[in-house]
């Protein structure tokens, strides 16, 4: 990529059929729906893609399928997180070979009792960087249980060639983003937030230049970022205010199931199945989700009809 990514880089859900098998045709429709929403890039195989319930072979199939189907229409970010450094290096090489524009990875972890020390976390990312030549986004999220202090993140940005993007999802993300940007300077090319944009306005105030949300309604969230970066903070606030009821419901009540429910309702995919031990959304939560999505007239609700 010759210019830094900004804007919205949503996570694509992985569609399954009702029997739990991967819906490959549905996956292509997910990608097309996201592109029609005007996204700036697409992230695949992330936590909101249910990467933790996919086999290695399913990952390989999906990586190839997604990159071949998108075919350069937008950049594709491939998530490669794993505790094993060798596995991550192998995933990184494969993703780049198939055409990924960027990689995203969490620090190595395997429960709170198996977290490497900071120097090994540094080496984990450095060994991936040495194996590829595309940007790496570090995902700093509570899910891992790994603390990534700002000095360590800055050290990685300055000393590991391809580490230049950061997705901040920790509590008080805005303060951490501001500290990271101040300490890292020009080495922080892409400071992003996540968590379905629930803290987006504060994170933009802190200096972030984009967001990685779910794929549910990117066309409504993207203008928050573009208005803000263009200097129209009032328009950004107004749009964020309009989106917040749905953002909040997704973030606090639905999780990764929200996008699938909406995509099924809108004919993008055939099933909103999530693999066990995840469980389906309750009828109560689903009804409120679809009401809020309908009130906002999001594209995905009608895209496949």
UniProtKB/TrEMBL annotation:
Pyruvate binds at residue 212. Keywords: Lyase. The keyword Lyase applies. GO terms for biological process: N-acetylneuraminate catabolic process. One of its GO terms (molecular function) is N-acetylneuraminate lyase activity. GO terms for cellular component: cytosol. It is an enzyme of class 4 (lyase). InterPro entries: Aldolase_TIM, DapA-like. Belongs to the DapA family. This is L-2-keto-3-deoxyarabonate dehydratase. The lineage of its organism: Bacteria, Pseudomonadati, Pseudomonadota, Alphaproteobacteria, Rhodobacterales.
